[in-house]
Design goal:
Shape: globular
Strand order of the largest sheet: 2-1-3-4-5
Helix content: 55-70%
Largest sheet: 5 strands, parallel
Number of strands: 5
Distance between the termini: 35 Å
Bound molecules: cobalamin
CATH class of the largest domain: Alpha Beta
CATH superfamily of the largest domain: Cobalamin-binding domain
Structural class: alpha/beta
CATH topology of the largest domain: Rossmann fold
Radius of gyration: 17 Å
Number of domains: 2
CATH architecture of the largest domain: 3-Layer(aba) Sandwich
Strand content: 5-15%
Number of helices: 9
Length: 208
């Protein structure tokens, strides 16, 4: 059933994907596994894009479909979040980069895990991150970036946080397709996360 969902999302069969997600929930499937399926489906979509089988329109549609499936799952996970009540997290895609599918999955998972998530969106300037950390008294910052140029934006964002005197108050994790531990070192972040689930586990570790 989960395989059928992955297939339906990656084939852009909107009605079938939503019906499958509803059926899985009704059958008592773990909502987290449905979210994992969204990630797997997007990996497939990414590969098809790179192989020249999919174009921009398909990528946008797939992103939208993942959002719709996430919206279905969210209420099911809300209950768990209420019990948790963790700290405040600021997240965003760095300046010059507009990729948001992965970042949205991370924000969604943090939200349903009880964090107070402040998602600043995409193409976020360093000063905006600084302001948000201050305003929301965030203990954790998540920086997303998929482009090579995002590495420099991550670095300048972290430098701006240092210049504002906030660096010792916030732990910083980075993620996004092209990032790595080497990028973490280059940018001056505390951790690199391979996927959204690693990010959530680490955030929980940091605040607990
Ligand atoms: C979808 C996509 C797009 C869509 C984005 C739609 C959207 N709403 O986001 C569109 C079509 C708009 C797009 C545009 C562009 N793209 Co594009 N795009 C992709 C593609 C195919 C998939 C990305 C994706 O969504 N993956 C699925 C998600 C789920 O994965 P993810 O983002 O990595 O996130 C996961 C983890 O990394 C992690 N994660 C992500 N962020 C964070 C943050 C934290 C804190 C944590 C803990 C974890 C975490 O969690 C997620 C889930 O596990 C990739 C290729 C690829 N396979 O990655 C190219 C790719 C990233 N794009 C690329 C390029 C070049 C561009 C453009 C410059 C193209 C152009 N010439 O205009 C523009 C960029 C414009 C800009 N200024 O940003 C290149 C980047 C190359 C590079 N080294 O710089 C790639 C690699 C394609 C390629 N092989 O050439 N793109």
């Amino acid at each position: 059933m989960l395989d059928t969902l992955v297939q339906a999302i990656s084939d852009m069969k909107e009605e079938q994907a939503l019906a499958e997600a509803r059926a899985l929930l009704a059958a008592g499937e773990d909502p987290m596994r449905i979210v994992e399926s969204c990630s797997s489906a997007m990996e497939l979509v990414g590969r098809r894009f790179e192989a020249g089988e999919y174009f921009l329109a398909e990528l946008m549609m797939a992103g939208d479909l993942v959002r719709q499936v996430s919206d279905l799952v969210k209420p099911e996970l809300r209950g768990r979040a209420e019990a948790a009540k963790r700290g405040s997290i600021v997240i965003g895609t760095v300046k010059g980069d507009i990729h948001n599918i992965g970042k949205d999955i991370v924000a969604f998972l943090l939200d349903v895990n009880g964090f107070d998530v402040h998602d600043l969106g995409v193409d976020v300037a360093p000063a905006t991150f600084v302001e948000a950390i201050r305003e929301h008294e965030a203990g954790v910052l998540g920086l997303s970036g998929l482009l090579t140029v995002a590495f420099d934006s991550m670095k300048s964002t972290i430098r701006a946080i240092e210049d504002a005197g906030l660096r010792d108050r916030v732990r910083i994790m980075i993620g996004g397709g092209q990032t790595s531990d080497a990028v973490r070192q280059y940018a001056g972040a505390d951790a690199y996360c391979r996927d959204a689930f690693a990010g959530v586990s680490l955030a929980r570790e940091w605040v607990d």
